[in-house]
Design goal:
The complex is a heterodimer of chains A (115) and B (111). Chain A is an all-beta fold and 115 residues long. Chain A has strands spanning 4-7, 10-13, 18-25, 31-37, 44-50, 53-57, 64-70, 73-79, 87-94, 105-106, 110-114. Chain A contains no helices and eleven strands. Classes of the chains: A mainly beta (115), B mainly beta (111).
């Protein structure tokens, strides 16, 4: 199974809402990533978890709160978002070896619209 | 900021033709990867080339790496309509978990 599953596929939320994005993989990968991608732009790294611990936070605003409950699951909690946060949010996973961590498996993404 | 820059930004070719995309980067790397993204979908890893390799092949893909010029190219031979996608190079910036993606080339293959 080489699949990374993201839910929901689409999400529309108001600026006062609280919602969560979910990501799941069963490949035994111990690194998981959140990326944000605007239209016609490359993915931008937000967070990296390694062995369920936050390894990288790319100075992401606190209205985005990641969580890694176990080695297979990654959540992104959203609160008080702004319209400019509308984007495709991509989850990825990888092994943690020197070279294997650079081969990332991506989910199909959650397309988020903030009204 | 993104480390990789790619050109061209967009490329339109006929089915059967070859497509070449280029990528430049700024800092030292352990390896460089190429990914494909179909419209609005997740990325798919295509190929990884190590910093001590100059050329690598995988099916219809040929990747070159010139570390002295900090550049790489991706050649897709005998293109097909199904190759229509955006192609991104990505680098590891010296070995950590941080992956930096280039701006991408949007390839359109006309049937």
């Amino acid at each position: 199974d080489t699949e990374v599953t993201q839910t929901p596929k689409h999400l529309v939320m108001g600026m006062t809402n609280k919602k969560s994005l979910k990501c799941e993989q069963h490949m035994g990968h111990r690194a998981m990533y959140w990326y944000k991608q605007k239209a016609k732009k490359p993915p931008e790294l937000m967070f990296v978890y390694s062995y369920e611990k936050l390894s990288i936070n790319e100075s992401v605003p606190s209205r985005f709160s990641p969580e890694c409950p176990n080695s297979s699951l990654l959540n992104l909690h959203l609160h008080a978002l702004q319209p400019e946060d509308s984007a495709l949010y991509l989850c990825a996973s990888s092994q943690v070896g020197r070279e294997s961590k650079n081969i990332q498996y991506f989910g199909a993404g959650t397309r988020l619209s903030v009204l | 900021s993104q480390q990789g820059e790619e050109d061209p930004q967009a490329l339109s070719i006929q089915e059967g033709e070859n497509a070449t995309m280029n990528c430049s980067y700024k800092t030292s790397i352990n390896n460089l990867q190429w990914y494909r993204q179909n419209s609005g979908r997740g990325l798919v890893h295509l190929i990884l080339i190590r910093s001590n390799e100059r050329e690598k092949h995988s099916g219809r893909l040929r990747v070159t790496l010139d570390t002295s010029k900090k550049s790489s190219s991706l050649l897709i031979t005998a293109s097909r309509a199904a190759d229509t996608a955006s192609y991104f190079c990505a680098t590891d910036r010296g070995g950590g978990f941080k992956t930096i993606f280039g701006a991408g080339t949007r390839l359109f293959v006309k049937a």
